Amino acid sequence: MLQNALSTPLFSLNHANLDIGRTRILHDISLEVHAGEKIVLIGPSGAGKSSLLEWLYQQQAGSIALCPQASGLVDVLSSYQNIFMGGLERHGSIYNLWNLIRPHIADRQHITRLAADLGIADQLWKSVDQLSGGQRQRVAIGRALFRQQPVFFGDEPVSALDPAQSEIILKLLIERHQTLLVSLHNRRLALDHFDRVIALKHGRIQYDGPVSGLTSDALDGFYA
Ligand SMILES: Nc1ncnc2c1ncn2[C@@H]1O[C@H](COP(=O)(O)OP(=O)(O)OP(=O)(O)O)[C@@H](O)[C@H]1O
């Protein structure tokens, strides 16, 4: 906490409002996000979690690995090609184009390892329209991991996975990013893997504080 008070925040909002057209989506939002924090966003459907993630993402898109709710995968391309797209900004267009047609050995090895970590090694060369919802979600996570950024933003990134997979994938995301801001509806994952909770309701922050001391029932209360 003291360290946070002294460091410059990565993200900062001070009594800010977010309007889309004439509609106010987020009201009077004040928060800071510091490097190293693992923050879970909770709240009922429509509370404003996706809007807050998108708003903060727009502040520093270049340094964030984003896994949005709508995965944005390209159906006709393979899992490999979709994951590779997470790293497009690291190279020029000729390298990228060539790699999409004939994968470069180093990228191929890297993405093959990543796919194995995500449990989709056997799906790597299939077009993603042939995959299940959970497999597609892991491809989208692979694409975010392949961005290799210090900050991860995820909008319900493990919602299509079974409990055991959710646990494994969330641990992987936490291991590979310094700072995380993730929306989840799963109370157990929220309590076990994050150190700060931001609870939203009707576009306002109703709680922003440490996870320690909170129970599953307390989290349920934020959905009441
Ligand atoms: N482009 C838009 N134009 C107008 N209203 C919008 C727009 N996008 C979102 N909203 C509204 O903003 C509110 C917050 O939506 P948001 O998607 O951020 O909620 P959420 O907490 O992520 O919900 P969920 O858990 O269902 O994903 C909702 O009332 C939604 O209808």
TrEMBL record:
<keyword id="KW-0813">Transport</keyword>
<dbReference type="GO" id="GO:0016887">
    <property type="term" value="F:ATP hydrolysis activity"/>
</dbReference>
<dbReference type="InterPro" id="IPR003439">
    <property type="entry name" value="ABC_transporter-like_ATP-bd"/>
</dbReference>
<keyword id="KW-1003">Cell membrane</keyword>
<dbReference type="InterPro" id="IPR027417">
    <property type="entry name" value="P-loop_NTPase"/>
</dbReference>
<dbReference type="GO" id="GO:0005524">
    <property type="term" value="F:ATP binding"/>
</dbReference>
<dbReference type="InterPro" id="IPR050086">
    <property type="entry name" value="MetN_ABC_transporter-like"/>
</dbReference>
<protein>
    <submittedName>
        <fullName>ABC-type phosphate/phosphonate transport system, ATPase component</fullName>
    </submittedName>
</protein>
<keyword id="KW-0547">Nucleotide-binding</keyword>
<keyword id="KW-0472">Membrane</keyword>
<feature type="domain" description="ABC transporter">
    <location>
        <begin position="8"/>
        <end position="224"/>
    </location>
</feature>
<dbReference type="InterPro" id="IPR017871">
    <property type="entry name" value="ABC_transporter-like_CS"/>
</dbReference>
<dbReference type="GO" id="GO:0005886">
    <property type="term" value="C:plasma membrane"/>
</dbReference>
<dbReference type="Pfam" id="PF00005">
    <property type="entry name" value="ABC_tran"/>
</dbReference>
<dbReference type="InterPro" id="IPR003593">
    <property type="entry name" value="AAA+_ATPase"/>
</dbReference>
<keyword id="KW-1278">Translocase</keyword>
<keyword id="KW-0067">ATP-binding</keyword>
